[in-house]
Amino acid sequence: MKLNQITFTRFIAAISIVIFHYGKDVFPFNFSSLLSFFKQADIGVSYFFLLSGFIMIIAYSKEKEINVLHYYQKRLARIYPIYFLAIIATFVYFVFIDKYINWPSLFISLLLLQAWLPGHATELNAAAWTLVIELFFYSIFPLLYNKIYQKVNYKKLILPIIALWLVSQIFLNWFLYSKFYTGFPSNSHEFIFYFPLLHLNEFLLGNLAGLWFVKKLINKQKNYDFYILILTILLYLAILYPFNLNYHNGLLAIIFVPLILLISLTTGLIKKIFNHKSLIFLGDISYGVYILQIPIFLFTRKIMSHFAINNNTLNFYIPLFVLLILSGLSYHYLETPLRKYISNLKLKRTRNNSNLEVL
């Protein structure tokens, strides 16, 4: 089962987060209507978590049981090599450029523990907290799949998963207006936004959407482009007018999940465009774009400052260009070879019928 049209959406989410971090003040993102959107573009991580849950089900839907050790081996092969590179590169920058050494943060980050420890979640490579959450999802997925998804009718999972999602959203929005939240930056902020358990609802909703897709929707492909367009407009309006709601921990699943399903099912122009080789490639390198953004922007801007290049627009677009180039090179010459090598190390193989990759 191949859903190449969904691959490019990962790049859209990743590049939106890069703009959120570095490009909100430059053309064209500094236009008022776009600026309001990209000020909240960090909700792209919520899309990642939902899509991760969805793709996991699609990727293993033909397996009667997941080989746990081989699964962990493949997941670590997918995320850790480039993650390690990004952490080390950021640490080197701080040591040699900022003259700041934080060995505990390096140790915690290399073990992928930072999001579990409020106060450490965004140290070194601030974008890396999401990988801690992905690793948490990966650690529990074989148990969920083997013991629950393969044995319980997905319809019986609808109520408890949606209930968990609803409780998570109520808790987030209550906490933000309670005396326990002390603003950004603080341990309370890192707890409510980065703690892995508070994102579990997104992964489980993605799983539920995947189960629904493979059980009921897979043979219902047709042109859903109009509905995708309507949902995209609704997403834009929801971000533009949040009505004091916070979307960070999955509230926009009410739009993201239908989008994922409809993009996966559509046979219209959107599928033809998103299946173009160049867009699929951008989707493939989206993990590198996301996890390498901070060290590449740090180093590139430092080099630019050495040559007295201080223009805001150039300070965004030149590092962005470098990021895209290095992410592509990393995908071809580092991520893919290492993933294949690590995945084929002496563990008993089980057949996997999907070519999908997961961020």
Jot down its keywords.
single chain, disordered C terminus, 359 residues, globular, mainly alpha
What does this structure look like?
With 359 residues, the protein is mostly helical. α3 packs across α11, α4 runs parallel beside α14 and α10 runs antiparallel to α11. The protein is built from 15 helices and no strands.
Helix and strand topology:
Blueprint: H1 4-23, H2 32-38, H3 44-60, H4 68-96, H5 103-110, H6 129-149, H7 155-175, H8 187-194, H9 200-217, H10 225-240, H11 253-265, H12 269-274, H13 277-284, H14 286-306, H15 312-343
Helix pairs in contact: 1-3, 1-13, 1-14, 3-6, 3-9, 3-11, 4-6, 4-14, 4-15, 7-9, 9-11, 10-11, 14-15
Largest sheet: none
Structural class: mainly alpha
Question: Low-confidence segments, ≥5 residues, pLDDT <50?
Answer: 348-359
Helix fraction by DSSP (H/I, runs of at least 4): 55-70%
Along the chain, the helix and strand elements come as HHHHHHHHHHHHHHH
Shape: globular
Work out the number of β strands. 0
Q: Rg, please? A: 20 Å
The amount of beta strand, in percent, is under 5%
Number of helices: 15
Mean pLDDT: 92
Number of domains: 1
Distance between the termini: 18 Å
